[in-house]
Description:
By secondary structure, this protein is α/β, with parallel strands linked by helices. Helix content is 49%, strand content 13%. Strands 5-4-1-6-10-8-11 form a 7-stranded mixed sheet, sandwiched between helices. The longest helix is centred in the C-terminal third of the chain and has 25 residues, at 312-336. The radius of gyration is 22 Å and the shape is elongated.
Amino acid sequence: xxxxxxxxxxxVWAVIQCCYAFFFSLRILPATHLKHEHxxxxxxxxxxxxxxxxxxxxxxxHVLQQQYAQNGVPEFEVVVxxxxxxxxxxxxxxxxCNEYRHLSVVTIPQDIQRDLPGKKFALRAGVxxxxxxxxxxxxxxxxxxxxxxxxxxxxxxxxxxxxVAGYGAYSAGPGLLNKFVRWETMHSFLQSASYTRAGKxxxxxxxxxxxxxxxxxxxxxxxxxxxxxSGDDDLMVSRLATKTNIALVRRHGAFTVCKAPRSLSxxxxxxxxxxxxxxxxxxxxRMLLGLYGFTHAAVWFYFIALMFTPLRWAAIPVMAIRxxxxxxxxxxxxxxxREKKLAIWLPLMDVGWMxxxxxxxxxxxxxxxxxxx
Length: 373
């Protein structure tokens, strides 16, 4: 009797997983491109940096040298907010200012009184200093994947969209942690992108997002914005994005790339900061995301339990259909996102994501990290 109950519960979880894949994940397969029929507008690239001297030396030239000019004159500016750095960040930025006239620096003193937590204080200063109404946000530890990053990310803004979500990749490296970090990043983008295609946008990656100036200005008026130290990207999207004002850009030239965390502790600290905003998503989004995570864990637990019962031969075909469906979708995603080497690791990543959810659930539900760097 108990075995039969477990089996039918397993069937229910597997069916929900398959329905979820059909309704959400399949939406990411077709590519859509907005026609760029409007005059190209100037753009302000904003980078908030605290003690990022080495990253700025390496990555800032790739941002400053974007191909976005008219008659040899850059049609963009780069605004770097030096948020009370104590390393060589000021000296590095000064040297770049001597070479690039379209670079400007906003310096936040160490002893200034802050009325916003975390990165939001620096971001507000950058938005206020920006000369143009089209903004492109990235981080100091990220580099554009191509010299067309700025034009590809800002094109939907020229076409009338208010928010543009791009992909923030991590560079490949040795070790299982690197592979799982890259897979989890791909999986998060697939999930958020499919929700956006379904008319339910809830997040973007702060290291690669473009928006009109009015979006962060409106977000700053939200009460929740003034309480959380992180999640500026997620809050802006989940509270202000609609089906018609947000665009997805997944072309390779529009990626940003940064080094993946090298240690488990560094990655956990990063995820704690990123995930703390999850409980502030709209209730419907939280329910759907929770259903996906729960059924993902349940289908694996019940399948493993059934392997020790006579019903294992009935469970194996069902699980095979579920796994083939998801592994196919993930394979398509990693091909589109230039992560082909992850394909052979998909079965392990599938199980690993189940463990990931259990590990980070307390940070999603209860905790918020009070610093951004």
